[in-house]
Amino acid sequence: MPDSENPATPVTFPPAFLWGAATSAYQIEGAVREDGRTPSIWDTFSHTPGKTIGGDHGDIAVDHYHRYRDDVALMAELGLGAYRFSMSWSRVQPTGRGPAVQKGLDFYRRLVDELLAKNIKPAITLYHWDLPQELEDAGGWPERDTAYRFAEYAQIAGEALGDRVEQWITVNEPWCSAFLGYASGVHAPGRTDPAASLRAAHHLNLAHGLGASALRSVMPARNTVAVSLNSSVVRPLSQDPADLDAVRRIDDLANGVFHGPMLHGAYPESLYVATASLTDWDFVLDGDLELINQPLDALGLNYYTPALVSAADVSAKAPRADGHGASDHSPWPAADDVAFHQTPGDRTEMGWTIDPTGLHELIMRYTREAPGLPLYITENGAAYDDKIDSDGRVHDPERVAYLHGHLSAVRRAIADGADVRGYYLWSLMDNFEWAYGYGKRFGAVYVDYATLERTPKTSARWYGRAARTGTLPEVEAV
Predict the structure, then answer these.
(1) Residue 9 — pLDDT band, cuts 50, 70, 90?
(2) Cα separation of 115 and 112, whole Å?
(3) Residue of 173, 379, 398, 433 marked catalytic
(4) Per the record, what are the reactions this protein catalyses (predicted)?
């Protein structure tokens, strides 16, 4: 009897299933002025008054740049089989142009060697939102040239590490870079131009395609190239035709704008129609869609919570409950007449509803959308208000329950025919949570920000047990 039908059946994963954790460079590395690194847009944004809670920034973060050996040892102790991390573009290629700085590349060489020595598979993400500031000064992602600069950077990284790293991801969550960075302004670089955000989305797609080609031109054929999308599960408030139309429009902006050209070589026609008041899409040049539509070896899916939408009266001013930060400017271009609603249920510290059924739904959608394409859950996790107890431990049963629910949803999807090959917990450890500063803890490992001491939480031990056995321990077994 399948796991989904018998809760007493142990939730067991395929033997080759990859158990990992994920981080990103600006959130953990620190050392922002060392070894030739130049500022990224997140350095500039986080040092701009009022942009982050408490004025927090990533100058030190959790000092992974200097503590990576201890962090890798901790991963090995927990039993992780894989580690997904991003490279800092401006650490590798300061200003986003010209030759690499070997000291920057050497850090990633040392990190990779340390992981391999501990039998932990490295997975590199080339871009996790930290565009070199000089490229933003030249126009940023709304400018076509940025995609070509990314391809050069991808080739540098592939030449340096492609002999030892087999799993590569071009860009992470391009939706956030395009629409939170250039439409709502809650992420770096903090611009609020909806037309520019659509240009940024296209050039991020182009960067993915060019970057994938650049990687393959310099790496062994055994290596895999993927992309990580934070595709949304968009649900209607009702079955009213206007609400169903709202779902389609948000689905185009959240999903189709990226997976359309990446997987199918075309943007949705309905997206062109819906955004015609902002742009005629003349920045999509002949041949672009072919460049973007590179064959993928895998698709990364990042999932946290579903979206609930309906049609709305544009004259009614109400807070936008889409979970993407407070701003007078929407991250949804030409969709001001769509309302977002809080979905029912328990929530994390981010205010995001806990709903593992959304992860199952997302996996099955892409199983149909791209049959035969292996899938990885490249981010999934939860923020809670974790505290160190008097016994020096951090008990987080809510996160354990969250992980059990979502990993069970992954296993149900596998039983339903999905080719899901691995799961990367977000995040390995507490870190700089973008505009929220250090106030939101996503880590399985607790970080004391005063001392930078690491303490594995209950969830880290639970997840490590799952990784070692391939079977989910009971939630109570913590």
Answers:
(1) low
(2) 5
(3) 379
(4) Hydrolysis of terminal, non-reducing beta-D-glucosyl residues with release of beta-D-glucose
**Known active-site residue 453:** no
- Rounded CA-CA distance 337/314 in Å is 5
Distance CA 348, CA 442 (A): 10
Tokens 């639970």 correspond to: 462
pLDDT in tens, 290-306: 999 999 999 999 999 99
Burial (CB < 10 A; 0-12, 13-18, 19+), residue 94, is buried
Phi-psi region of 139 (alpha: psi -120 to 50; beta: other; left: phi over 0): left
Please state the φ and ψ torsions of residue 273, each to the nearest 5 degrees.
Answer: -65, -45
- Residue at token pair 């672009």: 288
* pLDDT at residue 32, rounded to an integer: 98
The pTM for the full model equals 0.97
- What pLDDT shows up at residue 319? 76
416: how many CB neighbours lie within 10 A of its CB?
13
Do the Cβ atoms of 61 and 31 come closer than 8 Å? no
d(CA 268, CA 179): 18
Cis peptide before 189 (omega within 30 of 0): yes
Residue 2, pLDDT score: 39
- The answer to whether 116 and 60 are in contact (CB under 8 A) is no
Secondary structure of the chain in the HEC alphabet? CCHHHCCCCCCECCCCCEEEEECCHHHHCCCCCCCCCCCEHHHHHHCCCCCCHHHCCCCCCCCHHHHHHHHHHHHHHHCCCEEEEECCHHHHCHHHCCCCCHHHHHHHHHHHHHHHHCCCEEEEEEECCCCEHHHHHCCCCCCCHHHHHHHHHHHHHHHHHCCCCCEEEEEECHHHHHHHHHCCCCCCCCCCCHHHHHHHHHHHHHHHHHHHHHHHHHCCCCCEEEEEECCCCEEECCCCHHHHHHHHHHHHHHHHHHHHHHHHCCCCHHHHHHCCCCCCCCCCCCCHHHHHCCCCCCEEEECCCCEEEEECCCCCCCCCCCCCCCCCCCCCCCCCCEEEECCCCCECCCCCECCHHHHHHHHHHHHHHCCCCCEEEEEECCCECCCCCCCCCECCHHHHHHHHHHHHHHHHHHHCCCCEEEEEEECCECCCCHHHCCCCECCCEEECCCCCCEEEEHHHHHHHHHHHHCECCCCCCC
Spatial CA neighbour of 148 closest among 223, 183, 96: 96
| Structure tokens belonging to residue 245 | 């139309």
pLDDT digits (tens, 9 = 90+) for 314-340: 766 777 889 999 999 999 999 999 999
Cα dihedral sign, 149-150-151-155: positive
